[in-house]
Design a protein that fits this description.
globular, binds zinc ion, alpha/beta, 2 domains, 37% helix, Nucleotidyltransferase, domain 5, 362 residues, 10 helices, 5-stranded mixed beta sheet, 6-stranded mixed beta sheet, binds 5'-O-[(R)-(carboxyoxy)(hydroxy)phosphoryl]adenosine, single chain
Length: 362
C-alpha cells in the first residue's frame, strides 16, 4: 500500500510517499523544506512566519513527490500537537487531496509519528543483498526494523520530552513528561545564551566532543526523585528549567569559560537525566523494545549512552533508534504511523478532520 505522509507541525514542511506492507515501510520519495535559516534570525520558531512558509511550500512539495503519477492508497497527516499556524496548512492540503483523489485520510499524532520513525527504511534498489525465489520470480528480501510490544518510548524534541508506554500499537500511556522546558528547548535556550545559532542542540553537542563532561557539576533535575503518583498513575516526570537556570548562573558567575567543557558538562547532565529516568522505567515495565526518538535523539552521545546502559545491565531488550535523518520532524514517520492506522481502517472523513495543537497522545 502506498501511503502519502504530510508533516507541517513546526518548522519543516515535509511530504513523503512510502510503500508499506508486512515487510515494513520503505521510502519511495520524500522532500522536506526546512525553515531553519529563516527562524535562525529570531533565535526560535516564529509561528506566523512558519505558517506562511508552509503555505508556500506544501503544494509544490506534494506535486513533486507524486510527480511520477503514483496515486496513494491513503493520506496520513499530522493533526497535532504542534503550532496551529503550521498544522492547519498540512491538514487543509491533505484533506483537499483526500477529497480530490477519493483516497482515505488518516489523522496522525505527531508524537506517535516520532515513535514510528524507528521503523522507516530507505528504499535503495541495489542495497538488497539477500535474494529469495518465489514461484518464477526472483524477489529481494527487504527487511525493516519492527517495534515489538510492549514498548517504551522516550520522545525528546524541542517541544516535547515524554516517556510513553505502548502495550500494543496505538495503545499509549504517558508515564512521564516535562513539567517545564523540553530537553531540546533547554539545549536551544542555553545555546542562545552562548551566542550559538538556532537550533542549539547540534551546536552544543559539537562543542561538547572536545570538552570534559565532569568539568562542571550541573544539577540532574528529578533524577533521584521518587516517582510520584499523578492523575495518570505513576509518573516519571522531567524538569529542565532548573538546569537551564543553573547554566545561566554559572555563566554569569564565571568570567573565563571553556566553552567545550561547559557544553560537555551541560550535555552530560541532560543525558544522565534522560537515560537515568528511561532505565528506571525499563526496570519497572520490562518492555520488549526501548525506543529513543525526536530531534534530541540525533545526539550521538545520548544514543551511545542508552545502548551502553542497556548492554551493561545485560538486558535482553532491543533498542530502536531512528536513522539520523528521521530524528528531526519528517513526513516519512507520519506515513509509517499512518500505515498502522490504515491496517485497522482507522480513517477520518475529510469533513471531520481538525488540527488540534494540544492533541495528547494519551
Ligand atoms: O523533533 P524536532 O525536529 O522538532 C520538534 O518537534 O521540536 O526537534 C528539534 C530539537 C531542537 O530543540 C534541537 O536543538 C534538538 O532537537 N536537537 C538536538 C540535536 N539535534 C537536534 N539536541 C541535542 N543534540 C543534538 N545533536
Ligand atoms: Zn517533532
Amino acid at each position: 500500500m502506498l501511503v502519502l505522509g504530510v508533516e507541517s507541525s513546526c518548522d519543516d514542511t515535509s511530504v513523503a510517499l512510502l510503500e508499506c506492507s508486512k515487510q515494513g515501510c520503505f521510502v519511495v520519495n520524500e522532500l522536506t523544506a526546512s525553515q531553519i535559516e529563516i527562524h535562525k534570525k529570531y533565535g526560535g520558531v516564529v509561528p506566523e512566519i512558519a505558517g506562511r512558509m508552509h503555505a508556500e511550500k506544501i503544494i509544490p512539495l506534494i506535486e513533486e513527490v507524486l510527480k511520477d503519477g503514483a496515486k496513494p492508497d491513503a493520506i496520513a497527516v499530522t493533526a497535532g500537537p504542534g503550532l496551529m499556524t503550521g498544522l492547519i496548512i498540512g491538514v487543509e492540503a491533505a484533506k483537499t487531496l483526500s477529497y480530490a483523489l477519493n483516497v482515505p485520510l488518516i489523522a496522525v499524532n505527531h508524537i506517535e509519528g516520532h515513535i514510528h520513525s524507528v521503523e522507516i527504511s530507505k528504499q535503495t534498489p541495489n542495497s538488497n543483498s539477500q535474494i529469495t525465489k518465489t514461484d518464477d520470480k526472483i524477489l529481494p528480501i527487504r527487511k525493516s526494523p519492527k517495534i515489538i510490544y510492549p514498548a517504551l518510548a522516550l520522545v525528546a524534541s524541542g517541544g516535547h520530552t515524554e516517556l510513553i508506554l505502548a502495550k500494543k500499537q496505538g495503545r499509549y500511556k504517558k508515564i512521564g513528561a516535562t513539567r517545564d522546558d523540553a530537553a531540546g528547548e533547554c539545549f536551544d535556550k542555553v545555546a542562545k545564551i552562548l551566542d550559538l545559532p538556532y537550533p542549539g542542540g547540534p551546536q552544543i553537542s559539537k562543542l561538547a566532543i572536545e570538552g570534559d563532561p565532569k568539568a562542571i557539576n550541573f544539577p540532574r533535575p528529578m533524577l533521584k526523585n521518587k516517582n510520584s503518583s499523578s492523575k495518570n498513575g505513576l509518573s516519571w516526570d522531567f524538569s529542565f528549567a532548573g538546569l537551564k537556570t543553573a547554566a545561566l548562573y554559572w555563566l554569569r558567575d564565571h568570567k573565563k569559560i571553556n566553552k567545550n567543557d561547559f557544553c560537555s558538562s551541560f550535555e552530560q547532565a541532560i543525558i544522565d537525566v534522560l537515560v537515568g529516568k528511561t532505565m528506571k522505567a525499563v526496570e519497572k515495565f520490562k518492555p520488549k523494545t526501548i525506543i529513543l526518538a525526536g530531534g534530541v535523539s540525533a545526539n550521538k552521545k545520548l544514543r551511545e549512552t542508552l545502548i551502553k546502559e542497556v548492554k551493561n545491565q545485560a538486558l535482553k531488550y532491543s533498542v530502536l533508534l531512528p536513522k539520523s535523518e528521521y530524528c528531526m520532524d519528517n513526513a516519512a514517520m507520519i506515513a509509517t504511523a499512518g500505515y498502522h492506522h490504515a491496517l485497522k481502517k482507522d480513517y477520518v472523513l475529510w469533513q471531520n478532520i481538525k488540527a488540534d495543537p494540544n492533541w495528547e497522545i494519551a
